Amino acid sequence: MIVHRLQFYVTFLLICGSLANYFCDLPCGKHENTVCRREVSKECGELSFLIAIFIQPCTCSDRCGAHFRMLPLEKNSRKVILDLHNKFRNDVAKGHDIPGTSNTLPSATNMNVLTYNREIEFVAQCYANGCKEWGAHDKCRRTSKFESAGQNMFASWGTGHYNYMNDTYLISGTTAWFDEIKDMEPDVTTLVFRGKVIGHFTQLVWAKTTHLGCARTVFGNGDETGIYLYCNYGPGGNQLGGAIYKSGATGSACTKRSSEYPNLCDDHSETDHDWEPPFNIVF
């Protein structure tokens, strides 16, 4: 009787978890969606282990270590990283000198202002919790709104005690991505990688991207701790051969300009205030 009852509960949990998680219906070709993948680890605690098996993915992995902590962004932190992205985009859209050279990036006719998206954030948090070595990227970060999504990653670690809860690492990570501008070529009409690391910068300023969502996770063992910061972008950029943005008179292709960032287009007004996650990530 006990065995049959246990089998019933396991079956019930599997069915309910599958029905609730709509991300399992959003694959990318042969690749399963990040929010549908299950990576099981007892290192994260028995509750997390059982949840990963029976109900949901997004639990931590053995790579996270004893210091694992999920640090979801709160409202103020979301605003900090969104504002910094839009500030950098606004600066580039009016034309920007390439540091250390006599070259200048041209002004942009069509660069969008970014809006924060909690569904994108949810996917980023799910993947960040896996603590992938060297910040490897996931294969399928698709959402209900965006079939393709880009991704930037930043990591910082060391020995000692750090306050990962403050916004310092959000700012330093985003600034590090922007600083790749120093290796850019003036031609923005065709994305080509010539051996220099510029992909974080080009995604940050990709004109057609409209939405952003970010996540962070603490990892480490012993005296060493670190933080992963992931930002996902929709629609994704960094399409080889594609235009980072169209050069010309600033904002000339905009139907409407942003009031806060006047060099950027504000042609999209969608929000995700009514979006609810298919499940809560529990540890």
TrEMBL record:
SMART domains: SCP
Pfam families the UniProt entry points to: CAP (PF00188)
Chief place where the protein resides: secreted
PROSITE patterns linked to this entry: CRISP_1
Signal peptide interval: 1-20
Alphabetized InterPro entries for the sequence: Allrgn_V5/Tpx1_CS, CAP_dom, CAP_sf, CRISP-related, V5_allergen-like
Domain of life: Eukaryota
Keywords for the protein's UniProt record, in alphabetical order: Secreted, Signal
Cellular component per GO, a single term: extracellular region
Location within or outside the cell: Secreted
All residue ranges annotated as the SCP domain in the record: 76-241
Name of this protein: SCP domain-containing protein
Organism lineage string: Eukaryota, Metazoa, Ecdysozoa, Arthropoda, Hexapoda
